Amino acid sequence: MRKMSQRYGQHFLVNENIIEQIVQAAQRLKSGQLVEIGPGKGALTFALIKAGFKNFKAAEIDPEMISFLREHLPPQAGVEILPGDFSLQPDALLGVQDTLFVGNLPYVAAADILDKALGFAHFSAAVFMFQKEQANRIQAQAGGEFYGPLSILSQSRAKIALLCNVGKGCFNPPPKVQSAVLTFEKLPQPFIAPGQWAPFKKLVTAAFLHRRKTIYNSLLLAGYAKDRVAQTLEQTGLSFQTRAEQITAVQFKQMTQLLTNQPL
Description:
Elements: E1 12-13, H1 16-29, E2 33-37, H2 43-50, E3 57-60, H3 63-72, E4 80-83, E5 99-104, H4 110-119, E6 123-131, H5 132-139, H6 149-155, E7 158-166, E8 171-172, E9 179-186, H7 197-207, H8 215-221, H9 226-236, H10 249-259
Parallel strand pairs: 2-3, 2-5, 3-4, 5-6
Antiparallel strand pairs: 1-8, 6-9, 7-9
Helix pairs in contact: 1-2, 7-10, 9-10
């Protein structure tokens, strides 16, 4: 196998045990179609094919990796390469079936890719690898060290579980940080109505924009009306001195409904 350049800073997963755990999780969560994100040299891609997956899509940004995959993937597997940045690709490229996403996500773009996947209209499940600290943020609960918008916006759309931790030596070249693989499963019922998602996301983002300020002051700085904010906090049972990291997703949902005059 020829040496690859690293213009996109990839760290290629080479540990067979971790690859096998990801494949087994993908088999358990299998749905209508599979989309692999960032296949790189194809270590996971070949393992998925060996496990019986075929006719799936693989989104890759690096032209050199795309050429390599097209040259080496078995034609009978029917893998379609989607060139370009996955986070910028229109949903139309992914079809209309229930979709399972898998991938060793690039650290710098992982949050954007996760948001795109969870927001995809036909999202069913995902198995994603993240930098360990980012995985902690995704799973964090209110009051915890890592709790923030990523925690709330991820948990509001999927059931999340830790599949495994991944050491630096599982990659070539080794990264400077530890990693972790998380599984995501679509919630049986939407946590919040589709029409409320935009104001919910806006509220959560605004609440954490000034972490040292109280939720009352943060929302005033975000442009919410003073009287409405005061009334919302009172009805939600929150003190004006409460900070964003102390507020649960359910409470943010209640606040959104009150601020937008929607029924509870």
